[in-house]
Amino acid sequence: MGEELKQATVQDLKGRRVAVLMTDGVEQVEYTEPRKFLEQLGVEVILVSPKPAGAEVQGFNHDQPGDRFRVEMNVSEARPADFDALLLPGGERNPAELRKNQEAIRFIKEFGDEDKPIAAICHGPWPLIEAGIAESKHLTSWPEIQDDLKQAGAEWTDDEVVVDGKLITSRKPADIPAFNNALMKELMVIQQAGSDPGPTS
């Protein structure tokens, strides 16, 4: 990103808020890299989890334990109205646990109902099935879960990033730059829409 564009983008996105929904087993880089990218653009990022605020989420680097990350908000207290977008990192165990958590699925579903951006990477799209969001959507993901997404009614393709309306999906850590840029563009659209005074009478 050019320096002039970066400065303009920071000005545009300052004040935006993004929730990252995750729990133990998250693929660490799929949380840390998007968070760093967004924060450099002036976006406030909040770690939301089924775990209580102040607890820690265990990150993984593939199958090896990585760092631990402090939960900033319990999902039962989180409302999409307080955020501009939702980020769903992968790691196999993390979304598998979220799929079984009613509050996590409620939170994801409400984002879909309010037509706010949802960005999911790797195994991250998995909970979209329980939230009723995968059906009739064009998605990508880690290839191992493509059959589950297809059975839920999604169209699946093997692309580094797929954008279908407000839904952004990617396959793996190597796709993070394209994934980040797609989310940035969605946040800029929100900001521009929010700053548009609309027609005058």
Order of helical and strand elements:
HEEHEEEEEHHEHEHEEEH
Strand content: 15-25%
Number of helices, where a helix is a run of at least 4 consecutive DSSP H or I residues:
7
Rg value: 16 Å
Report the helical percentage: 25-40%
The N- to C-terminal Cα distance equals: 39 Å
Biggest sheet: strands, sense, closure? Answer: 7 strands, mixed
Number of strands: 12
Shape descriptor: globular
Any low-confidence stretches, pLDDT <50, length ≥5? 195-201
Could you characterize what this model shows?
The protein has 7 helices and 12 strands. With 201 residues, the chain is an alpha/beta fold. It starts with a helix and ends in a 6-residue tail after the last helix.
Short structural summary:
By secondary structure, the chain is of the alpha/beta class.
Keywords for this entry:
single chain; 201 residues; alpha/beta; 7-stranded mixed sheet; 3-stranded mixed sheet; 7 helices; 24% strand; disordered C terminus
Ordered list of secondary-structure elements with their pairings:
Elements: H1 3-13, E1 17-21, E2 26-27, H2 28-40, E3 44-49, E4 56-61, E5 64-70, E6 73-74, E7 85-88, H3 93-99, H4 102-113, E8 118-121, H5 127-130, E9 138-139, H6 146-151, E10 155-156, E11 161-164, E12 167-170, H7 176-195
Parallel strand pairs: 1-3, 1-7, 2-4, 3-6, 7-8, 8-12, 9-10
Antiparallel strand pairs: 4-5, 11-12
